[in-house]
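Much of what follows relies on a compact textual record of a protein's fold. A record is reproduced here so that you can trace the correspondence yourselves:

. . .
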Amino acid sequence: MKGPSFCASSLLISLLLAILCISPAQSIRLGVKIGEDVLTDLCSKTDDPSFCLQSLKSDPQTATTDLRGLAGVSINLAKTTVTTAHTFIKSQLDQTTDPQLKKQYSQCLDSYDDAIGNVEYASEQLSSSDYGGVSSAASACMTDISDCQDATSALPQQNKESNLLCKVTLLIANRLLGKV
């Protein structure tokens, strides 16, 4: 007959193994510095892995952060890119005299206003560790950019970069949730 300490030890080991098997993303979340393999894996799920890697590595924090910190990096990159695109669209709107183009730029400006709001919301949600909220906000940001793409084809680079960085935020949030 096995003693109570053996049963308790077996139960503890079984519980630890179950936790590790059920949620492998937890090991990444708990302050463990991410490696090149994680960056490569995340970026391989985007339309432009090279741009993704280059963007993430452009921030020095990427080299020393964990997955939660990388979410902050991607949100900051998305905010910069979306804000830059918004500024560009506004300048184009102010300069054009073509009524049809003015209408298209105006629709895009509204979409990018919403995208900026969603990126800011993602940042707020990350601060409160609400990774589901980050995921939802990043997805909404991608929808806003898609709305701009539907309005005009005059902004392919701005839309591509903004969409990709919002997608990276979505992928990281989903990994933090254990979905990837």
